[in-house]
Amino acid sequence: MREALMAVGFSMVLAGGAAAQGWVTPERGTATRAQLMDAIRPHAEWMLGAPVEFVVNDLRLLGDRAFAMLEAQRPGGGKIDMFKTPMIARGEFDPYIVDTPHIEVLYVKSGDTWVALHWAIGATDVWYAWEPICAPFRALIPEACPPF
Fold first, then answer.
1. pLDDT in tens, 2-47
2. What is the model's pTM?
3. Could you tell me the residue range of the domain that residue 35 belongs to?
4. 120: Cβ–Cβ under 8 A, 6 or more apart, which residues?
5. Is 16 part of any domain?
6. In this structure, are residues 67 and 49 in contact, taking their beta carbons and an 8 Å threshold?
7. What pLDDT digit, counting tens, does each position of 93-137 carry?
8. What is the Cα–Cα distance from 62 to 19, expressed in whole angstroms?
């Protein structure tokens, strides 16, 4: 129950942030939302194995920049067994540290194409709270990018 209340509270903060910051959340079923998910999908499938679909926890769009917080899963809601992923098989990550397939993504639009510019799977820190990343993305992620 406590987790549910925290999630609702966090969602309300994010929704209030959208109005204050000017970013929008592309609605489910829109071409933009599909393009953003398709931009990260090859990276996720390379690391987690195909096929992958996403549960969107947060999605923000402002001009030619976007930010997403996602949970990867198998189609239909199947759980991804991190111990059986290509990234673990290749020795790229420790499965005892990367225990969940959450993904953060920073996107840029290049022409008509959305590109997953910076991304991480299973991060245990707020890796994007770094001034060289914050500078172009601060308006999308102000809670991670205070004025430096």
1. 333 334 344 444 444 454 569 999 999 999 999 999 999 999 999 9
2. 0.84
3. 23-137
4. 103, 104, 127
5. no
6. no
7. 887 888 889 999 999 999 999 999 999 999 989 999 999 999 999
8. 12
